[in-house]
Fold:
Amino acid sequence: MNEQQDTQLVLIVDDSPQNLQILGILLEEIDCDIAVASNGKDAVDIAREQHPDLILLDIMMPVMDGYEVCRILQEDQNTSDISIIFLTALSNPDDLVKGLKLGAVDYVAKPFKGVELLARVRNHLRTRSMMKELAYLNATKNKFFSIIAHDLKNPFYTIIGFSEMLMKNIDTHTREEQLKFMQMIYNSGKDAHGLLENLLNWSRIQIGSIRAELTTLSSLDLVERTVAFLEPMAKKKSIRLEQEEDSAYEFRGDENMMQTILRNLGSNAIKFTPPSGEVLILTRESEDGSGVEFIVKDNGIGMPEEVQSQLFRIDARGTRKGTDKEAGTGLGLILCKEFVEFQGGDIAVESREGEGSVFTVHIPYVEGEAANEKSEVNA
Structure:
């Protein structure tokens, strides 16, 4: 359930329409998407916007030749990992060495043989796929150990520290102080339990041992239980937590996954909403009637576009603190995305700094299943 499963994209760059057509026809034999550019400038723009897995790049082009395209892409950290194969009629070894020094991974001489070209493209796409998977696994490992090394142990410092203080000096503290310490111990234990639960669920996803059990659920029942769960957290920050009165929609989903999704989104909204703010949870049927939408809306601090683009990425660096300096790992939103996709749905976010955020979860209706039938779907 990760981005490495997407179809790979190959960008063809050549100023000859005939060559573009021939290459496009050849690549139809490979399971990949194709983008084309007839000049170097367009090639750079497309590479930056669509981030292809591989570029088949002509060298001799007007305005901006292939060497310049390669140099620009290699110097940009956002595109430097894109594999480039030069397609060239140049036969001078110095020209070929120049291309490889600029960062190309291979070259194919013109006129090229279709079998040879396809073999090289397949090899480089396979290598690219393995590198992306390795990077994903490495990021997953780093995230896992970061949570264990820092976020998971921090609540236990509070639990151990204040419980020790109570045991050694209980007679010297007033009842109000004792209750305050116990409340802090309770809150830290609850935080640790929630994080551990997310961590275990996420770990089960990584090793493929989790399943989605589809049963008939009521959107109203899920929202009511979510609000009841979040109410103490909202009251603590003087945040008004509301659910929109609406009809109950029945759909088939995994009850535990849905509860985890809504609780994580709700607690995240409360975390980034200042005191006296408002969090609203509502449901509706999607405009096209294909499923149920759960919407969690807040009027909190919001977030810039660069933060939004990193929300569901395992390799995202750093997390923001809440309005009451609440710590976080970013794992909750990653888990939400995984659980939503397990049920065939999708999740989206809209946000503006200083105005708040809106998270929308779409869970599609499952066709051809009786309302009272229970089924298991392998992940």
